[in-house]
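pls design
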């Protein structure tokens, strides 16, 4: 159930614990809905602040350590409303902070934060003449499993599980099964390719991960495998990606990419979902194939 929080016109954060890498909420306010991402329940550095509907509800910003200039500033006229709740999400993954509207997978604000610290609390407040009512949905995240001997330290994943580096067809313990090709199990993996970090399918007998990019099925022998993840595959169409769907990579232009899969020619094949395209791209038979009806992986 959502947690209802009321914030007066005083720019004083009320902090709430969070786990994982996605914070979803609704807020009813005329302007200036402020959020703080911190490692402790206090307004102290290091801190990232997100102001939605500031400057008389005309623009939104991301600010680092309470200093100007703002690291991101976008025009968002009328983004808040004093008479109705407006929903939003904030994600932090792979050292990127993104902010988006409920029902929209693409962010309207994004910031590359190479020194991003562990975020354990989110603070909310209102000010500059505004009171606010918030409905908070604080995502919870399971602890990551230990790293198996013989594999490198895992990289962070914005939900249950970790991305474990591997190569040449290796399958780390607790790898997430994503599909099948004939009698062979396919696993969820990702790899760097052409300046992007792209989800794809690991086919152990082929010794590689296949990445959908540029209209082709591209083999990559060094990759990361999603291990120890818990979640479910949810059917969607077009760009209807659930707000709690955690990104698993990003395009060469910085757009979040999600884990998807589709049925093709008797297989269930893992690929990438790019919300702005409204499809899931899967690698198969040397080609990059697009499906508008597919499944996305939603972590629990």
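designed seq:
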């Amino acid at each position: 159930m959502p947690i209802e929080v009321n914030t007066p016109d005083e720019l004083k954060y009320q902090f709430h614990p969070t786990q994982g890498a996605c914070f979803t909420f609704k807020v009813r306010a005329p302007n200036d809905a402020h959020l703080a991402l911190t490692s402790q329940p206090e307004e102290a550095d290091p801190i990232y602040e997100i102001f939605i509907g500031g400057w008389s509800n005309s623009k939104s910003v991301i600010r680092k350590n309470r200093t100007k200039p703002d690291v991101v500033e976008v025009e968002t006229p009328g983004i808040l409303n004093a008479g109705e709740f407006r929903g939003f999400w904030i994600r932090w993954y792979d050292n990127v902070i993104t902010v988006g509207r409920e029902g929209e997978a693409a962010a309207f604000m994004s910031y590359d934060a190479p020194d991003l610290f562990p975020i354990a609390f989110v603070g909310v407040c209102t000010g500059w003449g505004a009171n606010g009512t918030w409905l908070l949905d604080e995502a919870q995240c399971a602890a990551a499993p230990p790293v198996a001997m013989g594999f490198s330290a895992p990289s962070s994943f914005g939900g249950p599980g970790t991305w474990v580096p591997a190569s040449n067809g290796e399958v780390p313990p607790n790898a997430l099964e994503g599909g099948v090709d004939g009698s062979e199990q396919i696993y969820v993996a990702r790899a760097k390719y052409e300046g992007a970090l792209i989800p794809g399918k690991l086919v152990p007998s082929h010794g590689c991960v296949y990445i959908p990019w540029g209209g082709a099925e591209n083999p990559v022998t060094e990759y990361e495998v999603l291990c120890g993840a818990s979640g479910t595959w949810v059917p969607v169409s077009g760009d209807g990606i659930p707000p709690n769907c955690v990104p698993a990579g990003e395009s060469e232009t910085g757009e979040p990419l999600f884990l998807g899969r589709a049925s093709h020619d008797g297989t269930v094949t893992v690929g990438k979902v790019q919300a702005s395209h409204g499809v899931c791209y899967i690698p198969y038979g040397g080609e990059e194939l697009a499906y508008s009806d597919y499944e996305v992986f939603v972590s629990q």
